[in-house]
Amino acid sequence: MYVLGLWDGHDAGAALLEDNKIIFASNEERYTRRKLELKFPCNSIKAALSYADLKPSDIEVVAFPTTELTKTLGRILPYQKEVHYRFRRRKMPLKPRIAPLLHYIDYTQKSFGVLPLCGTVSKALVARSLRKMGFRGFKLYSVDHHAAHAATAAFTSDFGKAIAITIDGLGDGLSGSISTLEKGTLQRQGKISAGNSIGVFFEQVTNIIGMRELEDEGKVMAMACYSYPFKWEDNRLRNFFEVKGIDIKARHLPMAQYDLLSRIAWTMPMEHFTYMAQQVLEHVLTELVTNAIDMFGIRNVALAGGTFSNVKANMQIRNIKKLKEWFVFPHMGDGGTAMGAAMHVNYLLNGTTGYALDNAYLGDEFGDDEIKMTLAKEKGISFEKDSDKSAHAAELISKDNYVFWFQGRMEYGPRALGNRSILSRPDSEKVKEKLNIYVKQREWFQPFCPSMLREEAARVLDGVKGVDRFMTMAYRVKESKYDAMRSVMHIDNTARPQMVGNENPNYRRLMEKVKRHLGYGVVLNTSFNIHGMPIVMSPEDALLTMRKTHTRHMFLGGYYVENKGN
User: Fold this and answer.
1) Are 414 and 331 in contact (CB under 8 A)?
2) Where does 161-295 show beta strands of DSSP type E?
3) Which helix (H) or strand (E) holds 341?
4) Where are the alpha helices (H) located in 52-161, listed in sequence order?
5) Domains in the chain, start-ordered, CATH in brackets?
6) What is the pLDDT of residues 161-189, one digit of tens each?
7) Which of 410, 411, 441, 519 has the smallest count of CB within 10 Å of its CB?
8) pTM of the model
9) Which are the contacts of 315, defined by CB distance < 8 A and separation ≥ 6?
10) Largest CA distance in the chain
């Protein structure tokens, strides 16, 4: 049986399941080229059906998450969604008197959760959109927001027994949930209300320092490392939250919290303020996870929800002594809830609780014939078939070049994992700065990350525990490897690695060749995009990015492409 999951909110997308297999998953931003697109995911749905060679009429079951008041109003009035999107992404003029009001309306509406008729209205509107696409005779299910998050964490973790914890801003009146997976049953054991959201707290900090909430929280984490450290007892934000068992309690209501945070931020440098916020997040999450392990006696933990994109907090969780195994779903934010909704409904209908997720290469793919046709139309480039692209790319990297690397199926989620990547050597400050200034065009304090051969991880990193295939955890770099890792290491000597096994043969071969040149199988890997844009999806996107950044070298499928106007 096929189950189609869709999400039509922040970072909209679709996922297709067949029995206990993930067939396809992607997000709408890759097709519309608007970061974190929130329109109905027509393109993602069409791509999923096309990949599986299905028609809309072949789909019998469709699932979608989140029927809270805010999302229901957005489905009724798409213009309202668009205004909020443009306001949040700062694509509209600032109106100082209006901004606080919009924040207040947003926080107030979301805290209502699911009101009577919201589910009925949302289902009717989603069904109407599907019928316009040609869907007929399908059964449509709505799924609780955090049930969708929990399904992704629990059912792809490969744990037969685990605690599934979800934390984000808020959804369907909640900001978190704690569930147990035992003997094929996923049971919610606790929930955290929207009014007590540690995720909203971090969003507010992001906004206050002049960044975009729901998008730039990673920059807050990165900036925090530039503060002088100080003791927990001296943190002026430490009393904002209290952990009680498996619940979190906020001291202030959201708008009162926002006002107080703004006043505190006014009195200190931004890096000190972000350090305090990061410290609060780490304390709250580690205490919550520790309490859950103690309460249920289960030492395997699976995590999802946008707050778990914070790799420094995840590192603290990984180091909990009572923890045995950990897993963070690679598309932990709302963009992963389409898959979560499908998994939850498949669990209810068929009892399916396990999916193999050896890799995140679940999106679109382009054959060499299609790539060649696209290249033939492009002016100012030369291209040729490359019989050993991995060796060629490794040689260029070893000579202080960076390369665009476009291969196979597109990654699912926010991380480039070696199929839509920009690669360079991990020890060159010169190449790193070139990437930051001319290609990525982003803030100087954001670190780049390494991809490495799985067997290299313990050689260059401290405290390697398990395998992180999806760049979801920070690790400390061994002091003896600082020079070798200086371009992929943050100022606090941490790195967010991707540990590559046999799931990506082309990429693994490239790193094996890099090791012959440099002595270690590690590359700097950053997403194939200009900052603020989605990761490239198609060969056309790749060529456009090549032109805009005046990049010389690209490996596009089986072809080596050189930009003559670099």
Assistant:
1) yes
2) 162-171, 174-182, 185-193, 241-244, 247-250
3) helix 337-350
4) 69-76, 78-88, 99-112, 118-132, 145-155
5) 2-147 (3.30.420), 157-328 (3.30.420.40), 368-563 (3.90.870.20)
6) 999 999 999 999 999 999 999 999 999 99
7) 519
8) 0.96
9) 473, 474, 475, 494
10) 64
